[in-house]
């Protein structure tokens, strides 16, 4: 095959809108979730007392590479599957900008800006395309998008030095508010919320009994700053309700979106912001596969 034919083939794949790529979406969502979960799981595990991973050297850098490139490749796949041209370009933006953060320090800020802008555009397009008939998701979906995008902007701006370090706390609160809104966006019912509240209670009790461990996991594992244990528990409860609600409807893609928001936690790095942007997009997408 000639070199000139490669761009042509790629462009032709982008132009296909006959639903051929629909079957990719569940696999892409799982790939993005598993890859993003690698650095999150490592951060959490290294802060558990007695963990053998506490002294692991060099593992964090490799985990960040996996947690960035995996979701970026998934974003490229979602771009191929997108039928909306604007959404397609935004997914391509996520796939292109996020890996730039791994190249050099000079490319980190542009990568952060590109991920935020691309994620906001994807959320906007998905909100415009789907309009639920029930009041709760009708209000919860734009609330989730607005809070999540605001969290991306504030948390990343503080982490790259554009905004005051106090923005980390504001970004944390916005992220936790978005996590609660995720349950509303997923149209969680009473049983879903009951399970979410039960999990929140377990987390709160565990955190109260081991405050130093809980604080270390929240700070290092989740990037949370200045949030109370109750607020953290409420955010996890909202994400649990969203996960249960989507799983109950056998909607794998939105369920992965809710879990992506969990492992992304507070988006203080480009890799976490990419996971959060994908999580919002998948949760808003409404795919029923």
Q: How would the blueprint of this fold be written?
A:
Elements: H1 5-15, H2 24-45, H3 59-81, H4 85-100, H5 108-129, H6 135-159, H7 167-185, H8 190-209, H9 211-221, H10 229-248, H11 252-264, H12 270-285
Describe this structure in words.
The structure is a single chain. With 289 residues, the chain is mostly helical. The chain has one domain (25-285). Helices cover 75% and strands 0% of the residues. The protein has helices spanning 5-15, 24-45, 59-81, 85-100, 108-129, 135-159, 167-185, 190-209, 211-221, 229-248, 252-264, 270-285. Helix 2 crosses helix 12 (270-285).
Features:
289 residues; mainly alpha; 12 helices; DUF8068 domain-containing protein; transmembrane helix; transmembrane
């Amino acid at each position: 095959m000639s070199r000139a034919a490669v761009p042509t083939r790629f462009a032709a794949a982008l132009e296909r809108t006959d639903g051929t790529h629909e079957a990719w979406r569940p696999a892409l969502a799982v790939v993005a979730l598993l890859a993003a979960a690698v650095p999150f799981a490592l951060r959490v595990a290294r802060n558990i007392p007695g963990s053998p991973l506490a002294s692991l050297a060099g593992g964090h850098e490799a985990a960040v590479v996996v947690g960035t490139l995996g979701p970026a490749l998934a974003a490229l796949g979602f771009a191929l599957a997108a039928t909306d041209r604007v959404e397609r370009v935004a997914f391509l933006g996520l796939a292109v900008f996020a890996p730039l953060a791994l190249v050099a320090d000079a490319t980190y800020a542009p990568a952060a800006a590109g991920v935020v802008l691309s994620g906001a555009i994807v959320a906007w397009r998905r909100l415009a395309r789907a309009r639920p008939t029930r009041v709760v998701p009708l209000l919860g979906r734009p609330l989730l998008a607005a809070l999540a995008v605001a969290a991306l902007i504030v948390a990343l701006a503080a982490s790259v030095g554009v905004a005051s370090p106090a923005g980390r706390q504001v970004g944390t609160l916005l992220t936790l508010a978005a996590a609660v809104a995720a349950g509303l966006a997923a149209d969680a019912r009473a049983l879903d919320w009951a399970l979410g509240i039960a999990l929140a209670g377990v987390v709160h009790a565990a955190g109260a009994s081991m405050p130093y461990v809980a604080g270390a996991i929240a700070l290092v594992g989740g990037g949370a700053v200045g949030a109370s244990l109750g607020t953290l528990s409420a955010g996890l409860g909202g994400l649990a309700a969203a996960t249960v609600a989507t799983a109950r409807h056998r909607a794998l893609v939105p369920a992965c979106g809710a879990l992506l928001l969990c492992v992304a936690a507070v988006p203080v790095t480009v890799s976490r912001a990419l996971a959060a942007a994908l999580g919002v997009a998948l949760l808003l997408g409404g795919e029923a596969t």
